[in-house]
Amino acid sequence: MFFAAMDKIQLISDVPLFQGLPLNQLQDLSTIVVEKSYRKGQTVFSEGDEGTGFHVVIEGRVKVYKLSSDGKEQILHIIGPGDPFGEVPVFEGGRFPAHAQALESSKTYYFSRKGFIRLIEKNPSLALNMLAILARRLRAFTRLIDDLSLKEVPSRLASYFLRLSDRHAGARNLQLDISKGQLAGRLGTIPETLSRILARMVRNGLIDLDGPNVRIMDREGLETMAETGKGLV
After folding, report:
1. CB 55 within 8 A of CB 109
2. What's the pLDDT score for residue 149?
3. How far is CA 172 from CA 92, 100, 166, 187, 226, in A?
4. What is the pLDDT of residues 11-21, one digit of tens each?
C-alpha cells in the first residue's frame, strides 16, 4: 500500500501542472485523485454536463470538440499524456463547454472540483500553475479562431504542418498523430476536401505523403501558403 501511494505521488509529480510542488502538496493531491479508464470512442463528458471536476491524461489521447446544430464536428484540442482538460469549470463553477471523447484506450487522473478548490485555498501555487495552463489554452483558441475565420482550408493546413514541424524542432519528417478524418475536423472542413488539398500539395511539391508520414519538401512554400493562401495550382 505504501509503495502504491508513492507511485501515485510520483506520477502526479510528473504532470506539468503539478511539477515543482513540494512533497506535502503532492501528498494532498494524491488523497483526492481518482484513476479512470476509457475505451476507444467512449465519452468522457458531454457539453452541458455539470463541471464536477477535471482530468489529466495519463495514457492515451482525448479529443475535446464542439458540435454544430447540423452535427458537424469541430475539434478544439487533442489532449495527450500529462495534459489537463475540462479545467474551466474548476474556476467558473459551471458546466462543461464542450464534449470530450477518448481517441484510443485511455487513462486519466480525475480531480473533483470541491477537493481541488479546497487544496487551492491551502496552496495558492496550485492556482498559479492552473492559470498558466489556461493562458496557453487561450492562445491556442485565439490561433484557432483566426485560422477558421480569416484563412481558407489550404492556409489552415499549411499552418498546421508548420506548427507540427516547430513542435519537433523544425523537423521535415513528420507523422500525423491523428487520423485524416480527425484532422479535417480540427481544420473545420470535411475529409473529402482535405484529401483534395493534400493531393494538390503533393503535386505542387510542397509535401510528400506516405500514409500518416508527411515530409515537408518546400517549407518556404508552406509559409507563403499559410500567410497568403497562395501557392496551389
Report:
1. yes
2. 55
3. 41, 31, 9, 21, 16
4. 888 887 787 77
Phi/psi for 87 (5° steps) reads -85, -15
Q: Which residues contact 35 (CB under 8 A, 6 or more apart)?
A: 58, 107, 108, 109, 110
Cα 195 from Cα 15, distance rounded (Å) = 36
pLDDT value, residue 60: 94
Under DSSP, is residue 217 helix (H, G, I), strand (E, B) or coil? Answer: coil
| pLDDT less than 50: residues of the chain | 1-3
Q: Is 226 helix (H, G, I), strand (E, B) or coil?
A: helix
pTM of model > 0.85: no
Inter-residue contact 161 to 216 (CB < 8 Å): yes
User: How many angstroms separate the CA atoms of 38 and 45, rounded?
Assistant: 11
Domains, the chain, with CATH or none: 2-148 (2.60.120.10), 151-228 (1.10.10.10)
Can you read off the three cell numbers belonging to residue 14?
510528473
Nearest to 221 by CA among 230, 211, 208: 230
List the one residue out of 18, 16, 58 whose CA is nearest residue 35: 58
Provide the CB-side half-sphere exposure for 79 (13 A, CA): 27
The x, y and z cell numbers of residue 105, run together, are 484506450
